[in-house]
Every structure is written in C-alpha cells, then in structure tokens.
Amino acid sequence: MSDRTAFAWDQLPEVVADYLRAHVAQDYATAVTFLPEDVTVTDNGEVLEGRGTTLEVFDKSAQDYDVETTLHTIARPADDVWEVGTHLSGNFPGGEVDLRMIFTLVDGVIRRLDITV
Q1: Residues with Cβ < 8 Å from 93, sequence gap 6 or more?
Q2: Number of neighbouring beta carbons within 10 Å of residue 78
Q3: How far, in Å, CA of 46 to CA of 28, rounded?
C-alpha cells in the first residue's frame, strides 16, 4: 500500500489506530500511553524527546486551541512506516492545515512520530 488510499481504521496496525483514536479526541494522556517512554516525536519542526515531553507540548496546544482533526488518507511508504493524511481546523493561526502523521514502528512499537505539513 504505497499509494494513498482513503482512510480506514482497519488498514492500520492496532497501536497506530489506538493512538489516533485518542489523539483525534484530544485525549493526549491516553494517546501517549501507546508511545514508548523514549519515543521521538517531531511536531511542526520541533523535536520532542520522550513521552512526558510530548504530553506536555500536546496538552499545552490543546489548552491554547480548539482543534478538530479529520483523518483522510493512509499510505505505507515503507514496511514499518504508516502515513496518515489529516486535516485540522480550529482557532489556531491560519485556521486550517493539512498535515501528515508518519508513524515508524519497530517490533510493533511506535518508535517515531513525525507530524509535518
């Protein structure tokens, strides 16, 4: 599945689907439980090291902005890499943006999450 396909929950590994369900609901305390303690997350160019730092940054964003996330597409650019195309709308600067959430799995664990435009 290297080409983009319409979003469907059953096309994702369970850990990615579980993470996304919590993330879309802005329940970041639950979302980060699907990440290892030493995860690396890149969000908007900022590298976040570890589960605790990721929760801190995501929680602050949720306090500052009301955001609705719509999941649009899935691609699989490599064997253990899943890319989910998303659309965000809300009261953040610009009001709307399309993002890619790229999950890199190692032994079934999300080792890296890159969130890019």
Answers
A1: none
A2: 10
A3: 17
